[in-house]
Amino acid sequence: MGLSAALWGPLGLLLSLALPPAVGAHTHRDYCVLGAGPAGLQVAAFLHHAGRDYEVFERTPAPGSFFMRYPRHRKLISINKRYTGKNNAEFNLRHDWNSLLSHDPRLVFRHYSRAYFPDAGDMVRYLRDFADRLGLHVRYNTNIVHVTLKKDWQAWNSHYFILTNQKGQVYQCSVLLVATGLSVPNLVDFPGSEYAEGYESVSVDPEDFVGQNVLILGRGNSAFETAENILGVTNFIHMLSRSRVRLSWATHYVGDLRAINNGLLDTYQLKSLDGLLESDLRDLAIVKDAKGKFHITLGFFLEETNASRSADAIPLPQDDNDNFAMRVAYDRVIRCLGWKFDFSIFNQSLRLSSGSEFSKKYPLIRASYESKGTRGLFILGTASHSVDYRKSAGGFIHGFRYTVRAVHRLLEHRHHGIPWPCTEHPTTQLTNSIIRRVNEASGLYQMFGVLADVILLKENATAFEYLEEFPMQMLAQLETLTGRTAKHGLFIINMEYGKNFSGPDKDVFFHDRSVGHTEDAWQSNFLHPVIYYYRHLPTEQEVRFRPAHWPLPRPTAIHHIVEDFLTDWTAPVGHILPLRRFLENCLDTDLRSFYAESCFLFTLTRQKLPPFCQQGYLRKQGLVYTKSLQQHGVESGLLRDYATMGQVLEDSSRQPGDQEPVNQPLGTGHLIHLDSNKEEL
Amino acid sequence: MEAAFVYGTAYQFVLTTEIALLESIGSEDIERAHLYFFHCNLISDLTQQCRRTLMRQPLTTLNIHAFVKTMKAPLLTEVAEDPQQVSTVHLQLGLPLVFIVSQKATYEADRRTAEWVAWRLLGKAGVLLLLRLTSWMTVTLQISNIKHLFPFRKRDSLEVNIPQHTNVVFRRAEKEVPLEFLVLTDIDSIISYVEDNVEMEENKDSDVEDPDLDIQDDEVAETVYRDRKRQLPLEVTMELTEETFHATVMASDSIVLFYAGWQAVSMAFLQSYIDVAVKLKGTSTMLLTRINCADWSGVCTKQNVTEFPAVKMYKKGENPVSYAGMLGTEDLLKFIQLNRISCPVSITSIQEVEEYLNGELYEDLVTYSSVSVLGLFSPAMTTAKEDFTEAGNYLKGCVLTGIYSEEDVWILANKHAATLPALLLAKHKDGKIESIPLAGTPAQDIVQIITNALQETFPEITVENLPTYFKPQKPLLILFSDGSINPQHREAILTLVAQKHLDSFTPCWLNLKNTPVGRGILQVYFGLLPPLPLLVLVNQHSGGHVFAFPSDQSITEQNLALWLKKLEAGLENHITILSAQEWKPPLPAYNFLSMMDAATSQHATGKAPGRMKEIDVQENDKERHEDKLTVKKEPVETLRIKHWNRNNWFKETEKSLKPHTEL
Known about the structure:
The complex is a heterodimer of chains A (about 675) and B (about 675).
Chain A: H1 5-18, E1 26-34, H2 38-49, E2 54-57, H3 65-69, H4 89-92, H5 120-133, E3 138-139, E4 144-151, E5 159-165, E6 170-178, E7 184-185, E8 197-198, E9 213-217, H6 221-230, E10 236-241, H7 248-251, H8 263-269, E11 275-278, E12 284-288, E13 294-298, H9 299-304, H10 317-320, E14 332-335, E15 339-340, E16 377-379, H11 397-416, E17 422-426, H12 430-440, H13 442-446, E18 451-457, E19 463-471, H14 478-482, E20 490-496, E21 528-534, H15 540-544, E22 557-560, H16 572-587, H17 596-605, H18 611-615, H19 627-636, H20 669-680
Parallel strand pairs in A: 1-2, 1-6, 2-3, 6-16, 8-14, 9-10, 9-14, 10-11
Antiparallel strand pairs in A: 4-5, 5-6, 7-15, 12-13, 17-19, 18-19, 18-20, 20-21, 21-22
Helix pairs in contact in A: 2-11
Chain B: H1 2-7, H2 19-25, E1 36-39, E2 51-54, H3 61-72, E3 76-79, H4 89-92, E4 97-102, H5 107-120, E5 126-131, E6 150-151, E7 168-171, E8 180-182, H6 187-209, H7 219-226, E9 238-239, H8 242-251, E10 254-259, H9 264-280, E11 287-292, H10 297-302, E12 310-314, E13 321-322, H11 329-338, E14 345-346, H12 350-357, H13 363-366, E15 371-376, H14 382-394, E16 400-404, H15 409-415, E17 422-427, E18 432-437, H16 443-454, H17 466-470, E19 476-481, H18 487-498, E20 506-511, H19 517-526, E21 534-539, E22 545-548, H20 557-568, E23 576-577, H21 592-600, H22 613-619, H23 621-626, H24 636-656
Protein name (chain A): FAD-dependent oxidoreductase domain-containing protein 2
GO cellular component, one term (chain A): endoplasmic reticulum lumen
Subunit structure (chain A): Interacts with SEL1L. May interact with OS9 and DNAJC10. Interacts with TXNDC16.
């Protein structure tokens, strides 16, 4: 996350040319990490914990250099929710957007700041502690200025990554993990663009803006943050961008404009001089007049008037169009257009190219975060956001801390033969496992649509393996990536917003936006768990050509757990029961739980037992009811009071398919049932 | 409006909200929309009132269409052919046909009756006058009880036999369903018969279509839910948190219940756990604690607890022990109590050994352990001691084990005629002490020896202990008894056991007083609760046959031996076969996939239908039809919806998945 890498770059290159490294004088590392920002430290923590041979290279003398300068106005917009009313640490991570993952409970961000939107300085302090406490191997003041490949058939990936630092020292790495963030400010080239001050260097002192007309280019959080800071002292602020403003509360994407920064929207809509305009910046031109004020004109006007740049001679739009919106002269123009990935240090042999038009600022990678061009080269952290750009949180700490973990798990399997961690349970635990995860898992919650839990069924569906937070777009390659087998069907647990709910132009406060009934769960708009069932692992083709707007190929069956206002999906009838019915119908079995007495009855009156009795009761772990529970059971009609059962009996053995298992009248028992019916009415 | 558009040329459609008019028509319930058909084309004079028919079905386009069609159909049709071959518009609309059987002699009267019936059943069933012609009325059947409705199945013959006294033939709209030949005395009974049957179908319809998926059918979940408002004395156990967990289990011997507040089984067991704590209050050195893993999932994961509920015992300087017994008060209490002393416990004097073996030493614990186990070793037998200690450790909480290895151990060896190292098993019930040589026996085998010793030869079977006796997979020979067992019966069986006649069985008895669910079992075997005592042989493991010892014979050694011989020879008939039915989903699930399809394909009208079972129907069609037990008789409407759905599904699949096809 070094911003001045661009400045250092050419200098470093010169040095390395001046001092060619001695052949063979290099250090080898299995894993090299570029950048000691949050993502770099996060992957280092996992590598360290696993006892791997790794080293982090950091250009500056301390971790998290990005946060030493940015955000310029020092207020982080990632929330630091210190109280949730819950004790579950995993759940609380859902609302902690700053912490990295570690086994040290002290390394939780709420211990570093009391502010809901913390100061960037606290993040610097946190990252330093994170690196120190965990004893991570970070080589500071080491600027990697050049990365190239060296073929070697013995290497893990048939090649090594050769890294050269600013002093010409060379490192050889089996795997390269790039966590350098987006370090190059985005520039738009148009006539007069040199007059614009950059976000990276503009003054943050409001005094410098008193009584000025300010034009801000851009409409992201940095633009609004800048505006917010000077809103009260300027004459007015105009904000110019190519497309409409995208509000994060409408798009459900944290990278869009956050409510905390949107003071200017308020004053614009209330006609308080500030304003928002849309235009393609590349068509514009800025002209500086004799008084040092800036005028907006159009690029092609300049072309017409050749190169004679006398400001007064250049035609302005208002010459023809006297009500042109931007006809006033500005005192300042500030460019807040974001950043892009620094491709400059990577040799062409790495074939690290930028993504599509839509995500040009990011390097092109697979859903496994591995570069498309080079095996063994992974992009982590903010720079890996092309995978879920404008969808999920992969470009932010609270998202990439999980994707980094996923990458680490993939590497553990690929290079160390350690399969993707999983827990194995009997089928009776299926509903429980899912309910537990959807209620506490933070990775699923933050990285919705990107990371999903996977349940791999064992033969005959008597047991299953539970894998957490697998990159779901890699589903077809699950077996090779995780070392687990998926021969007998699988469930995918994902979190989703309603299909047509989010969008920059959507009204997310419309009247019937939330759904309460279980049968309408599929129409839930707010983030809710969705479970996909596949009889067979989908193929790569199926994943690639999945229906539009579907995160996964069409499943055999699908279940939505109805959205919940409290995101607490533990209601026995509203959430758990429909889920159980879904799982039962997928597996074609009965997943109800039974008391020992019922199991006893089944054992002696039937040849087959339901899984709960088989896996519990028959293993001497039956569940014995207490008096009061038995009473409730009898009242509900689900249990029978055998002690009062009379002499005259009809054949009414309990069938698993019965809708009302024991409601048949029987002798003296009859009376009890009538009573119970009354109570239910 | 749609109906008016379609039928506007044939009929005049009138809409009214005039209350007075509605009342004059005699609408019963003017709050609700009604549709009347006025048969005004039958009258010539406007002063006359038109006959009218009220549509009873809900006002849907489909129903109106069907209703209008039946109005258009001839009121009464005369036929003289096989009722099974007749086809009218009614059948297509899913309505039944009523044939009034007529003869030449009574033709006029029958016709009037038929017309009368036809008016009454207009819109509900088609009415036909069936002329009984001698030419096809070849055979008449002798029916003994003609007053009863007699369903008559038509086989593959063209000849149809109408029983002699039949005056009404009822034909349901469903194919495959046999004709019903009825003898009905008056018009009202015809009407009510038809209405009952039609209504019954409608009810069944809605039952099958809409089983309430939101009704809890899990007994544990439901009982826990119903009990949610009762205050448990939770304070008798200590609640642990992430902060207090380690300090607590390190500071004192503790039992920890790991549970999840949202999980029903956990919460059911929590009640038993609290009961145990109440019972032990102030008497136990063991600290009873609990931790809610829904809050402190990190602690639970670190303690290797991934399934709930789980109970672990933490003792100073020892590895935590997982409780693996029944999730109930009794077994847990036993586990905790037996763990008060170390396992095996060291016994230091001959005097103590005597007290240990006769149950005086740990008087309060003997109730939890029917057998006291004592290992006898001379001090030098270190490996044997180690093995025994390991076995004792393994059996922690199941049985009392002790170890004696003083210099004077030979006194005990002599007394009990044991060769050292040896195992003494003191059974407190009958006061017998058995000795078993242990030389070179590994720990695993010692465990097996002790576990076997804990099993009785003729136990009283209970809910708690059945799994133990069920494990060997032998047929159970169960003597059901209401109260304690007759000593003579016990004697008879024990004699047979001694004579090795029962080696291939697990003989046991069941006391209905202690195990009332036995009644439920007898009910399955016999239908009625038979006179007790009663001996039953249950063979769950091969074939599920159940045999009953003849109740007219007394349970004696000889009779039993003879019966068993006959059984072996296959000369006895079973009284029932245990159901081999698999445990299938009790109810379907919401089929969200088809609902989503319906929504995207714009075919959705109102509530999108769909239940998960349809997937099965598609895929297991053949299988289902073969297995008659699982084929529910589905009324036409449901099936129709299913077909509609299925078509929809395929259409949608084609549309949305062009690059590839599923299924």
